[in-house]
Every structure is written in C-alpha cells, then in structure tokens.
Amino acid sequence: MEDVTHDGVAAQRERLMEGLRIYGGHYAELSRRFAAWLGLHSTDATAVLEIAAAEERGTPLSPARLSERISLSTGATTALLNRLEAAGHVTRTREHSDRRVVTLRGGPHIQDRADEFFGPLARRLDTTMSHYPPELLARFESFVADLNSTMDAHLAERSTTTPRPPGD
Description:
Blueprint: H1 2-38, H2 42-57, H3 63-70, H4 74-86, E1 90-93, E2 103-106, H5 110-129, H6 134-159
Antiparallel strand pairs: 1-2
Helix pairs in contact: 1-2, 2-4, 3-4
C-alpha cells in the first residue's frame, strides 16, 4: 500500500512541476508579447518590468542589481539602460546620500503602459485566487518561496561550476 501512496505523491509532484513549467512558459510568452507591444527587444522589456516592479515594491534597483536580476554583464546592462533612457522608458537618478549610487526609475509613462497591458490579466488572476481561502494561499505562498529559494541555491551553485566538455 505504501508504494501506491508513494507513487501517487510522486505523480502529484510531477503534475505540479509540469503545471509550474506551463505557468513559466505562459509568463515568458506574456513578456514577449509585452515587449512586442512596446516595440522593444524582450531583454529591454524584461528590464523595464524589473525596474517598475522594484519601484512599485518601494525598493528601486541600482544598475548592478538590475544586471543580476536579468543576468546581463554590467557592460551589456549599461548599453541596455542607455537605450531605455534615450527612449524615455527609464531614468537614472542619484537619490542616495552617496551620490555615486544610481537608482533606476521607470519613465513617466511606463507604469501606465504596464498597467494597460497587464491590468486585465491581473484582475482575472485576482478573481481566480479569490476562490481560495487565505490559509491555502498562505501555504502556497510559503511553498513558492521554498521553491524559489531552492532554485536560487541551485543557480548559485551552477554559476561556479565549469561545464564538462562533450563526451566526458
């Protein structure tokens, strides 16, 4: 009986991971469409979203932190920020007492554009989540945080390993 129960749990975990992979694919496609809608390269749109989201959370990004968030070198991030700033999508400010610290802010129109594009989906997702009790959402929030911590740790480990040559 234990094997049947274990197999059921394993199958449930596989279905859950598959659901998360599908959700990730949908998120990637939505990001791609947002980029096209703005007329930007997908990496530029991802940067704009990261900057806007951080600003919305009250923790604006520095160029170095953005570079980490979108996995670009500092040089590539500088070029990206130059493009976005020239187009009016972001601004770089020096708000910190240490004037060397640069803070990234969304351009005056970017939050409105993001709200216009993502607002209908946000309302639909909110309606979907409203069907679940707060206790279940809290458990799921904890579960997703645990998955993200595990992924972060794995990515940190993998960034320090050298790939094996083919055939080894």
